[in-house]
Amino acid sequence: MEPIRAVAALDDELRRGMYAFIRAARRPVTRDEAAAAVGISRKLAAFHLDKLVDAGVLHAGYQQTNRRVGRAPKVYRPVETDIRVSIPPRQHDLLADILLDGLLAESGTAREAAVRAARERGQDVGAAEREQARPGRLGAERAVTLAAAALDRSGFEPDRRSPTCVRLRTCPFHPLAAKAPELVCGINHAFLTGLVDGLDTTSVRAVLDPRTGECCVELHAN
Predict the structure, then answer these.
(1) What is the residue range of 60's domain?
(2) Per-residue pLDDT, 98
(3) pLDDT one-digit tens code per residue, 80-101
(4) Are 45 and 38 in contact (CB under 8 A)?
(5) Residue where a domain terminates, one of 50, 78, 106
(6) How far apart are CA 170 and CA 154, in angstroms?
(7) How many Cβ atoms sit within 10 Å of the Cβ of residue 147?
(8) Quick one: pLDDT at residue 105?
(9) Which of 83, 149, 157, 167 is the most exposed place for a label (fewest CB within 10 A)?
(10) What is the Cα–Cα distance from 192 to 222, expressed in whole angstroms?
(11) For the chain, which residues score pLDDT lower than 50?
């Protein structure tokens, strides 16, 4: 995938809307479903979806069915590759990888410092969210709402499973989490625990609950 081509293909409100819907669905999506999500015809949706496939943003395939007559419905799913454009080129992942190697080679003290820093950063994010919203005393549902808003801006793609539970569909630290899951998930958990602390609520907590293809942490009511 060429990142500039991919970004250019998403420089259209309808395409961005369908792409966001397909990512959130967590399963292959048909043309009819994508069309309904943004309120356009199936024919127009097919045109835009195929543009996204050509740009390398989506994969296209055919739905497995038991039908014996007619073609199976065409379905779309997002590619697993991140889309990033930087001019001039930057190597933030390289720096992060070097720092991670350094932490892995160091003693527990260095790891503890990283976890502590992550929690403090999370507290800052949570406190800023609370300061902006000024919600007063927070119950679980409102606390989850504020946490989800902050996490959405941080790239976690929160998925509200219930009024008092949020799963995080994306790990912003991927693919480094695959290299050192214990360390990276610990940092992630510390960040999200700090965020809850910063919101000044005891009604919600961050718990480790690793699942394939998602963030390792879940927020839910106590």
Answers:
(1) 3-78
(2) 67
(3) 888 888 777 766 776 677 677 7
(4) yes
(5) 78
(6) 10
(7) 26
(8) 75
(9) 149
(10) 15
(11) none
